[in-house]
Structure formats: C-alpha cells, structure tokens
C-alpha cells in the first residue's frame, strides 16, 4: 500500500506537503544517518529574527523585465516557482518600485498599490510558501533614468534623464520616506513577503545622497556624513515602523564609489554607516557588486578583504549579518567565503538561471544529502520521514 501524503496548505489544487527544502540530512558516508556531525557551514541553519533559514544559499534579486503594467505575471509564477521547489535558503525577488515613475524600466515590478501587492502574492508568494520557502521583496526607487538614443551615425548611446537627488525639495523627501513605509506595509500585509530588502545601490534614491560627488545640497540632507545618510535612516525607520518587529530587514549597498577621488564614497564610510544601520534595526547588510577596483590586489581579493574588515568591525558589537553576491558559481568558493568569515549568507544570481537545482548540486559537491521536494525525491526516501 502506498504512502499517503497530505497536500500543501492554502492552495486550491493539490501539491504535496513539503519538508523544509534544502535542509541538511546527513553526510553521504554516514549510511545510517546516525552521525551527529554538524553540517558544513554552507548548509548550517541561520536565524534572523523570527525566521530560520535552512542553508546559507540565497537567490539574489535579478531583474527579468517581464511585467504587465508593473505587476508580476505567470512568467514570475514559473520563474520563482522553479526556484522555490529547489531549496534555496531564501529568495529575494527582483526589485519592485515603491512609487509610480521610479521603476528602473517600464518592464520592472512595482508595489505602490494594493492591486500590485495582491498580484505579488498570487503570482509569487503563495506558491513559494506552499513549498516552505522563505521569500522576500526588494524595494527600490530609481531616480535617474537611462534611455538609449540613436545618433546621426546610427550609433546607440545611453542618455540619463529625470531627476537627480539634489533637486528634491525637503517636502518631496518627506513624501519619499512615506512611500517606502507604505510599500513595505503592502509587501508584508498584502503580498505576505517574509522580509524586506531596501535597495540603496547605484542609481537608487538613497545612494545619490551618500557621495559628495552627487550630493551638493546645503540643507540637512547634504554636507556632513550624518546629513548625507539622513534620508536612508529616515526610510529605514519608516519601513521598520510599518512592518512587524519580527520581520527581518535587509539593505543592499555598494561598497564604495570605486573612484580615487577625495569626495567619493569610501569603504570606511560604508563601515561607519553599517553601525548606524544596525542601530536602526537592519538585520542583514547585502554588499552588491563583483568587487573593488581600489586596493592592492584583484577586484575579487579586494572585496573579500573589505567584507572581512566589515565583519570583524561588528564582531562582538552588533548582530548585523553580512551577505553579498558577485558570480559565486561553485560550492568551494561559497564555502571559502563563509570559512574566511567574509560573509554569513551567499547570494547567487546568474548561476541559478543556468541551474535552478544549484542547491542540490552544491550539496553533492560537499558530500551531503539535503531535503528535496517530495515530487523529486520518491526514488531516494519515499516515506513520511521526509517531513521530519
């Protein structure tokens, strides 16, 4: 007689109830599973406020340029659904604009009204949760547009259009801060996302304030370091006010301006800012980009050195966790970054596009067995024990 499997909850169709996917079971050489050895760090659980992620492998936010009127479609159901069944510790959904006119392109997502948030739930979050996968929403507000023009010689070139940050009035800034809080509230209460990530990287509104190269303001949002980070801290405070206390908050920053100029934003300023982020309720600092050109070594080595400095600065002082992406395509390299204490969470982008089953491949590479979706595991452990 076959094993009876319950259906996943909160769906209007049958799909099996799932275990926590991507969770360490045993080392492959431990045939009976009786060994009590700790899992490799890549598959060691991590608690962030009310969430416990089963492994340290996350899907980095990647634009797919496939929306319908700024809303997710069946493409997103298939795209994120294929990832959700394969056991990443977390999925960070591509950037969603917090206000009209601030998406990076017209094909990116938005979440500034209830209709959009409802589509996020029905096309992304509902299925992801049926698979026991933790999924978060990256919020953004892109203030400088890049369009492509063709000149007389039929050569394409990019032209920036739209507002820059230092053009904003104080009243406009206050409105922007409120827009972030509204979007965060919609993302958690209507779309049901498990956590929020603030996109504060290149081209997004807050990043334009950081560097003296782009911020020429003379008011309370310009000049000193404290003034230049003010808008970001106000946004963080308003987001935290609009989401439950046990909901994690991530933020994505670039490490520095990568320019040898006295007014450029520096890695020292990023480390200084990171302590303010921790004070204001940020749980995870996500450093974007491949690497740093400034420094004595290669971009890759410079970035690892910076991330190690960042983590060392917080050791014993705050609980801020460090995540980063940047073409991390092998289990060996991901494990090295964790072992060198360069970061706590490995965010992976393009390798997941090539191989949605990356988590299982990396589990094989480090010689362990992890939980898989029931539909893909009948030949390996087809008993009720898969739900333990």
Automatic annotation (TrEMBL):
GO terms for molecular function: FMN binding; NADP binding; NADPH dehydrogenase activity. Its cofactor is FMN. Coiled coil: none annotated. Gene3D superfamilies: Aldolase class I. Residues 41-360 form the NADH:flavin oxidoreductase/NADH oxidase N-terminal domain. Keywords: Flavoprotein, FMN, NADP, Oxidoreductase. It holds the Pfam family Oxidored_FMN. InterPro entries: Aldolase_TIM (IPR013785), OxRdtase_FMN_N (IPR001155), YqjM-like (IPR044152). PANTHER family: NADPH DEHYDROGENASE C23G7.10C-RELATED. This is NADH:flavin oxidoreductase/NADH oxidase N-terminal domain-containing protein.
């Amino acid at each position: 007689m076959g094993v009876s499997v319950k259906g996943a909850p909160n769906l209007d169709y049958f799909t099996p109830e799932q275990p926590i996917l991507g969770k360490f079971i045993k080392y492959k050489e431990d045939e009976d599973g009786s060994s009590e050895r700790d899992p490799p760090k890549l598959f060691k659980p991590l608690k962030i406020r009310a969430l416990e992620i089963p492994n340290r492998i996350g899907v980095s936010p990647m634009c797919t340029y496939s929306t319908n009127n700024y809303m997710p479609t069946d493409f997103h159901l298939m795209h994120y659904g294929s990832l959700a069944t394969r056991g990443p510790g977390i999925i960070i959904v591509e950037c969603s604009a917090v206000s009209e006119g601030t998406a990076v392109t017209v094909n990116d997502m938005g979440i500034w009204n209830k209709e959009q948030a409802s589509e996020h739930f029905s096309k992304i979050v509902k299925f992801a949760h049926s698979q026991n996968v933790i999924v978060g929403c990256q919020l953004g507000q892109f203030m400088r547009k890049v369009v492509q023009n063709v000149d007389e010689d039929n050569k394409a070139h990019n032209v920036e259009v739209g507002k820059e940050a230092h053009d904003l009035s104080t009243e406009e800034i206050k409105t922007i801060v409120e827009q972030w809080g509204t979007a965060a509230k919609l993302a958690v209460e209507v779309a049901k996302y498990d956590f929020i990530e603030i996109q504060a990287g290149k081209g997004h509104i807050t990043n334009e304030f950081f560097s003296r190269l782009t911020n020429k303001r003379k008011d309370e949002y310009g000049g000193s370091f404290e003034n230049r980070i003010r808008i970001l801290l106000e946004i963080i405070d308003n987001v935290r006010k609009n989401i439950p206390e046990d909901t994690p908050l991530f933020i994505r920053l670039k490490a520095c301006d990568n320019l040898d100029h006295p007014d450029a934003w520096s890695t020292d300023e990023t480390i200084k800012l990171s302590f303010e982020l921790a004070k204001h309720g940020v749980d995870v600092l996500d450093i974007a980009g491949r690497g740093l050109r400034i420094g004595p070594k290669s971009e890759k080595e410079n970035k690892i050195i910076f991330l190690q400095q960042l983590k060392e600065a917080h050791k014993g002082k705050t609980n801020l966790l460090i995540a980063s992406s940047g073409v991390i395509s092998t289990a060996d390299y991901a494990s090295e970054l964790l072992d060198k204490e360069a970061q706590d969470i490995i965010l992976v982008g393009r390798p997941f596009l090539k191989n949605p089953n990356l988590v299982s491949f990396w589990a094989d590479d480090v010689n362990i067995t992890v939980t898989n979706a029931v539909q893909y595991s009948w030949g390996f452990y087809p008993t009720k024990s898969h739900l333990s």
